[in-house]
Specification:
alpha/beta; 8 strands
């Protein structure tokens, strides 16, 4: 049996040797063949040189160097497109996803589960702001989304080949891989773990980047924002009607003073803000439709770094995918 391990990375050269050592130990313990696919998403720290060193040392390692930084979701997709195993593990390169958990995931897969998630129980070393934002994000997404997405789950997971084949059919530009995996609906199980602090380097997902990822998740898996815009319009219409009735009654009874102009001004600014918000929501959906209509490839592979006779991609795939 072949186990594929897909690892998207950006400037992680200090973690790759240790990650490979631990992955090799786990796969040898499982007694299965392995392929380790390292997807270099435009690194500038010499990560590609470490990948070449690993390929020379271990023929089961293959590097895919993207032509530029396409983003973590696109890099993950590139690796899964290339994976050939009966099962595929998707994980980060920062050693915060312990490779030793793959053994437990494997046994749950043997029991008939086609997806095995790793749920982060504790996340030491991360700021309270980031933890609070992540907690709110997952619960808000589950509330608004039409797909049930597991809470507190990152990209670390094991997937059956049928799941990976299904994901290859999903080619939207604004991707949220965690949501797409949940969307497939295959039988799943979860394991919990305490996520260790980053081994070296710094995270590439700051608050701003997480915010944009959350937008892709919300707008990619729910039309609730559009319904929210409609509900806001109905609510403002009812409030305006109610205010008009009060002002009319006050005018007839002589209880409305000139200060009512301030009330009108506040209402006008409030209405303008709601209109801009609704326009922005519509713009997000229209922008995503525009990008999808362009039919551009999700990523471009500049180079495949592989041992002789171990190339996994045809030449055409190195141009566009």
């Amino acid at each position: 049996m072949l186990l594929s391990v897909v690892i998207p990375l950006l400037n992680e050269k200090n973690n790759l040797l240790e990650l490979h050592r631990r992955l090799a130990a786990v796969t040898e313990k499982l007694g299965c063949d392995r392929e380790i696919i390292l997807v270099d998403d435009g690194s500038t720290d010499g990560s590609d040189q470490v990948i070449r060193e690993l390929v020379a040392r271990d023929p089961s390692v293959t590097g895919l160097r993207l032509s530029r930084n396409f983003g973590h979701e696109a890099a993950s997709t590139a690796g899964m497109d290339a994976a050939r195993g009966e099962i595929t593990v998707l994980m980060d390169a920062d050693l915060q996803d312990p490779p030793e958990l793959i053994e437990e995931m494997y046994h749950l897969w043997k029991q008939g589960n086609q997806i095995v998630y790793a749920v982060r129980r504790r996340r030491p070393g991360e700021s309270r702001l980031k933890l609070s934002a992540a907690w709110l994000f997952y619960r808000a997404l589950n509330f608004l989304s039409e797909v049930s997405i597991p809470l507190d789950v990152g990209d670390f997971r094991l997937m059956d080949s049928r799941v990976v084949q299904s994901l290859r059919k999903c080619r939207e530009q604004d991707r949220f891989v965690r949501g797409l995996v949940a969307w497939t609906g295959f039988r799943s199980a979860a394991i919990q773990y305490d996520r260790p602090p980053r081994s070296s380097g710094k995270t590439h997902y700051g608050i701003l980047k997480l915010f944009f990822l959350s937008l892709d998740a919300f707008f990619g898996f729910s039309i609730s924002p559009l319904r929210l815009a409609s509900a806001s319009g109905i609510l403002i219409m009812l409030l305006s009607l109610f205010a008009s009735l009060i002002l009319t009654a006050g005018k007839l009874t002589g209880t409305i003073s000139a200060s009512a102009l301030a009330f009108f001004a506040c209402g006008l600014f409030f209405l303008g803000g709601v209109q801009l918000l609704c326009t922005g929501i519509l713009g997000e959906y229209i922008g995503r439709i525009y990008r999808q209509a362009q039919h551009r490839p999700l990523y471009l592979i500049a180079e495949e770094i592989a041992a002789p006779n171990r190339a996994i991609l045809p030449d055409a795939a190195k141009v566009a995918a």
